[in-house]
Specification:
alpha+beta; Immunoglobulin-like; five-stranded antiparallel beta sheet; four-stranded antiparallel beta sheet; 2 helices; 37% strand; elongated
């Protein structure tokens, strides 16, 4: 017993030092374990969020757009006007039918429809519609899945459309899905040779779906 007390007294400092190391090791291990649990929790939350996003995309509304000529013959009208000593003003008015189709599995709530028209020499001369005067189109009520809405759009560009020019049309449809997420669909079309209406499929930024 005496020898044991002598040994403990002699190595008391070492024992205290070892105890301190043990406490630090326990603290570090506790932090590592907590960090691991925290990281695992974050990964689980991210996985759940991804699954929710996938589920919402499967159930959301998808509004697709297309333009068609109206049934009447008044598709393109050239007008001229003159007031007093002012130079003669020439304009080209193009009328098209906008079809909005809900290809999704839940209703779409269309909030705003805007349309832009301009006369250019080629599609390479197209500029961003931002800053151009837009025509506000009366939106639809909610579009149920598989249903469509139709609106007549009449756009006017400065000048008379020549045979070697095109009339470019750009339409923006803003809507919300049942999860109250804001969505956007755009479409660009070209009127060529006064009679042909083509979608601008080669210009991705003018045909977007979000």
């Amino acid at each position: 017993m005496t020898n044991l007390l002598a040994w403990l007294t002699k190595y008391e400092a070492v024992a205290v030092w070892l105890e301190g190391i043990a406490l630090v090791a326990i603290f570090i291990w506790d932090r590592i374990d907590a960090h691991s649990s925290h990281k695992e929790t974050i990964n689980q939350i991210k996985l759940a969020q991804d699954q929710i996003t996938v589920a919402q995309n499967a159930e959301r509304a998808w509004v697709m757009t297309e333009l068609e000529w109206p049934k009447s013959d008044l598709k393109i009208v050239l007008t001229s006007s003159k007031q007093g000593q002012e130079p003669q003003t020439e304009q080209t008015t193009v009328t098209v039918m906008l079809h909005c189709n809900n290809e999704g599995r839940s209703p779409a709530f269309v909030d705003k429809i805007r349309a832009y028209g301009e006369i250019v020499d080629s599609v390479h001369d197209l500029s961003s519609p931002v800053g151009h005067q837009a025509q506000e189109v009366v939106p639809f009520g909610p579009l149920a899945p598989g249903k469509s809405g139709v609106r007549s759009i009449r756009l006017t560009g400065a000048g008379h459309l020549r045979d070697d020019q095109i009339f470019s049309i750009f339409v923006v449809v803003e809507y919300r899905d049942i999860f109250n997420r804001e969505r956007l669909t755009t479409c660009g079309y070209t009127v060529y040779d006064h009679n042909n209406l083509y979608r601008q499929d080669t210009i991705p930024e003018r045909n977007r779906f979000t």
